[in-house]
Amino acid sequence: MSIRATRREETRQKILEAARGILESGDFEEASTREIAKRAGVAEGTIFHHFSTKEELIISCVTTQLAEAIEKGLYTMDPEWCFVDKLMHVASYRFTQIGLHPTLWNVIMRQLTFAPRKGAVHDMMQRSGLIKAITDLIEEAQLSGELNPDLSPTLIRKSLMALFLFTIHEHMSTQNFDCEDMCATLRELIEVQTIGLWARKPECAA
Questions:
Q1: Which of 198, 51, 56 is nearest to 137 (CA)?
Q2: Which candidate among 19, 96, 138, 187 keeps its CA 20 to 30 Å from the CA of 13?
Q3: Tell me: the pLDDT tens digits for 16-52?
């Protein structure tokens, strides 16, 4: 990487860190790009050299951390685990992030839920690698006979994401961000789908 590219990336990271700090405080909706720039130690116009809109900045904040959770989950996964166990392993890393920074994720979820640009949430999942990771696990399970191979992997993936988002909203509403509790909620929902709608009961670890 050239010196210029390195400096550009360093500036981008400073802006992301400043934005995350404001998100963590819960004041992102009121914060101006001028305030974000001040915290990052850059000119306000510099933000828009890296992020086209404030929404794009939020999505980039989420994408980076989501990608980290996915990478860790996939890297530490036992290939012998059943489909549900693999999904829960990846989800546990995500729930841990949310539990460590609940205020940050409350603001992020609110911002993304009401994002003015159609497809903003899908872009975040695509760029983080989440869509590919989940689709690969689904197709692997269909090949092994764990999931019905006649079902669309895309529809299964969309159903899974809906359950994941429901779990987050459910726990945000009660301010219960315990990782084990969140995993228990999601596992129950996924197993109902897997057993009742998608295939036979998986032989998961207790």
A1: 198
A2: 96
A3: 888 888 877 766 666 788 888 899 999 888 999 998 8
DSSP 198: I
Tell me the pTM.
0.78
Would you tell me how many other CB atoms lie within 10 Å of the CB of residue 85? 16
Q: Please tell me what DSSP assigns to residue 201.
A: P
3-state secondary structure of 200: coil
Torsion on CA atoms 190, 194, 195, 201, rounded to nearest 10: -110
d(CA 26, CA 166): 21
Instruction: Catalogue all structural domains in the chain, each as residue range(s) with its CATH number.
Output: 1-51 (1.10.10.60), 54-198 (1.10.357.10)
State the Cα–Cα distance between residues 194 and 119, nearest whole angstrom.
27
- In this structure, are residues 67 and 83 in contact, taking their beta carbons and an 8 Å threshold? no
Question: Looking at this protein, which amino acid is placed at residue 161?
Answer: M
